[in-house]
């Protein structure tokens, strides 16, 4: 039920459909979804309550916090580039395995 717990919007309807198609017990499914969503929204509310005023101060006076803004932007770009490079590396490894006929070991 990760789709109900992560803070980013995600398409939960396909997970709900899969649970229904897989004859997952309704009571257990609803309990897990409710618990995950409660934890998700509690965490979002807690973070917003704790850091909300600081965040608004940064938005009102961005020049006072330009160092942290630059660090956040650099880290975001670095993580994005690292994800692209890792994806390309994995695709190349898969193509090399396909060319040589070597299959990855079973897990």
Folded structure, characterized:
The structure is a single chain. The mean pLDDT is 83. With 107 residues, the chain is mostly helical. The protein is flat, with a radius of gyration of 21 Å. It contains four helices and no strands. It has two domains: 60 residues, no CATH class; 39 residues.
Task: For the structure shown, list the relevant keywords.
single chain, 107 residues, mainly alpha, 2 domains, flat
* N→C terminal distance: 23 Å
Provide mean pLDDT, rounded. Answer: 83
Total strands: the figure is 0
How many distinct helices? 4
Structural class: mainly alpha
Radius of gyration: 21 Å
The coarse overall form would be flat
Strand content: under 5%
User: Could you state the order of secondary-structure elements as H and E?
Assistant: HHHH
Task: Report on the biggest sheet.
Answer: none
- Overall structural domain count: 2
The unreliable regions are: none
Q: Helical percent range? A: over 70%
């Amino acid at each position: 039920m990760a789709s109900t717990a992560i803070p980013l919007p995600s398409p939960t309807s396909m997970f709900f459909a899969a649970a229904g198609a897989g004859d997952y017990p309704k009571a257990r499914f609803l309990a897990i979804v409710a618990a995950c969503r409660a934890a998700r929204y509690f965490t979002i509310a807690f973070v917003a309550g704790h850091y909300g005023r600081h965040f608004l101060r940064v938005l009102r006076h961005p020049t006072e916090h330009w160092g942290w803004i630059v660090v956040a932007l650099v880290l975001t770009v670095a993580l994005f580039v690292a994800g692209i490079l890792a994806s390309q590396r994995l695709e190349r490894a898969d193509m090399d395995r396909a060319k040589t006929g070597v299959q990855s070991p079973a897990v």
